[in-house]
Specification:
With 276 residues, this protein is an alpha/beta fold. It has 10 helices and 8 strands. The chain has an 8-stranded mixed β-sheet with strand order 1-2-4-3-5-6-7-8, with helices on both faces. Strand 3, helix 1 and strand 4 form a beta-alpha-beta unit. The radius of gyration is 17 Å and the shape is globular. The N and C termini lie far apart (36 Å).
């Protein structure tokens, strides 16, 4: 483990996988994700080993070995975190974001406040762009912040999964009896950061090209054919408003992806050999 302290005083922990000379990519995880999440580790290792990339797999603030800003949840702060990480790990890097982490990666690249971003991969950012699917309540943060402040972690997990992610209640109830529940509770307070990233873009409204005009670096949006309509619609919608983006949908992929299927297009795009 390595770590940096940002100008704002946040400690960011990360693992560095050195694969070769094909450039650097920073992995940006989504809700409940952290750098030791097995699929994040597998993705980092495969990108390094098979595509000669240097991979920075970090804990976003509030999870894993990184510190937090309790009660302060603002996407601009997480963009600053990414800027500090890019600077500290060589000055230039691509971003690979997963779920709400994809939203964060896209917003960071569009902000113009992170020098050195070379490319972006967005794997299934959960934008909600119409009212045909699940639309979270705009005031969801009021209950979420209250539950977090009271350290009711199990309730936070259930609330965020059902009210922000739209997962069926019976499915979430069963998850309480799985080995993953402990890690979900450990990262539960960080969901307030995920909502700070995504909340304004989950209101059932079309994405506006003007909001994304600053994202001019090459961008690959990836979705899975086995994912729900909401995520597949979101992938097409963000691709349509980005100045320099293409979209690929992988037939056998889901939001809980098979890393062996996800890695090839990602690795080829990052290494400059993608031709699809």
């Amino acid at each position: 483990m390595e770590s940096i302290t940002t100008p704002a005083g946040i400690t960011l922990a990360f693992d560095r996988y050195v694969g070769g000379d094909a450039g650097t990519v920073i992995l940006v995880g989504g809700a409940f994700s952290y750098r030791k999440f097995p699929k994040m580790v597998e993705l980092a290792q495969k990108l390094a080993d098979e595509y000669r990339l240097t991979v920075i797999n970090y804990d976003r603030r509030g999870r894993g070995d990184s510190s937090d800003s309790p009660g302060v949840y603002d996407v601009e702060n997480e963009i600053d975190d990414i800027a500090a990480l890019v600077e500290a790990t060589g000055g230039s890097a691509a971003l690979f974001g997963w779920s709400s982490g994809a939203g964060l990666a896209l917003l960071a690249a569009a902000s113009g406040r992170v020098p050195g971003i070379t490319k972006v991969i967005a794997f299934e950012p959960p934008f909600v762009v119409n009212h045909e699917d699940f639309v979270p309540s705009a005031d969801l943060h009021l209950t979420l912040h209250k539950l977090i402040a009271e350290d009711r972690r199990g309730e936070v997990v259930k609330f965020y999964m059902t009210h922000a992610m739209g997962m069926p209640r019976p499915f979430v109830a069963v998850m309480r009896f799985t080995p993953f529940w402990k890690s979900l509770k450990a990262t539960a307070p960080a969901t307030a950061h995920d909502w700070a990233v995504m909340g304004d873009y989950m209101r059932g409204e079309p994405l506006r090209a003007a909001d994304w005009s600053g994202l001019t670096v090459p961008t690959l949006v990836i979705s899975g054919g086995k994912s729900g309509d909401l995520l597949r619609t979101a992938a097409r919608a963000i691709t349509a408003v980005l100045p320099n983006a293409r979209h690929v949908e992988l037939a056998k992929l889901s939001h809980n992806p098979n890393i062996a299927l996800l890695t090839p297009p990602a690795g080829e795009f990052l290494a400059g050999t993608y031709t699809h």
